[in-house]
Amino acid sequence: MKLNLTKPIVFFDLETTGLKITTDRIVEIAFLKIFPNGDKEKKNWLVNPTIPIPEEVSNIHGITDEKVKNEPTFKELVNDIFNFIKGCDLGGYNSNKFDIPLLAEEFIRADFDFNINNIKTIDIQNIFHKLEKRTLSAAYKFYCNKNLENAHSAMADTNATYEILLAQIDKYDEIENNIEFLSKFSNIRGNCADLAGFIKFNDKGEEVFSFGKYRNTTLKEIWEKNPGYFSWISNADFPKFTKKIIDNFVLKIKLENKLTS
What we know:
The protein has helices spanning 55-61, 65-68, 74-85, 95-109, 124-131, 136-144, 154-171, 179-185, 219-225, 228-235, 240-260, and strands spanning 9-16, 26-34, 40-46, 89-92, 121-123, 199-201, 207-209. It is α/β, with parallel strands linked by helices. The protein folds into 2 domains: 9-185, Nucleotidyltransferase, domain 5 (2-Layer Sandwich); 199-260, no CATH class.
C-alpha cells in the first residue's frame, strides 16, 4: 500500500531538551518525505540547542551536551529545514500537540516567518488513541507486528510513525486514504488558529480563546471589553506562535479603527 497523495507529506520526529514548547529546544530532527509517486527522501540533523540538555533527558534519547556542542544551531539550519518541508503536508506522532508547535517556535526564534497556511497535519497518535489507545512502541507492535528498536531515536520513531499510518489505513475501513480526511480525523482539538490550541475558530469562523475567563469569547469581543488582556498575553509565558496570532489581531484592529476614525 502507498498513501494517496496530491502533494508530498513529511513525517518527522523531534528529540528535545524537554517537553515545554515555550522554553525547550530541538536537539535532533528527522524527516521522511513521501512523494505522490511513492518515492522517499530522508534527512536527519543533530542540533546544538544552545542551552544545556538535562541529564535525565539525555538518559532517554542518548543525546548529550558533548554530542551536540559542535553541531549547527537551528538558526544555522533553518533554510535547509524550511526548504525540505516547503510545499508539503506534515505528519507525526503527537505532532499536533508537541512537535509542530515546537518546530514553529524554533522558526520564530530564528526570525523566520513560518505559518501553517495550506498545510494539512496528520497526528498518528490521535488516530491511534481514537481507535486503540496505546503508546508508539505498542502501536508499532499492534499494527506492524514489529518491535520498535532504538525507540527515542528520531529516525527510528519517524519510520515507525509512517509504517503505522499505512497499517492503520489498511486495517480500518472507516479511514480514507487521503490527506484531507486523515488531517481532520487525527485532529482532536478542533480548528485551531494557533498551533498550541490556545486560540480556536468557532462555528462562525471567528477566533476565540479556548481557556480561562474568556473561554469561547471572540477576540473582538474581548478587545472591546478589556484590551489590556492582550498585553497580558504578550508578556506571559505563551508560545511565540500564539503571541504572533495575537499581535496580528491587535495590529489589524488598530488599523481598522484608524481607517474608520
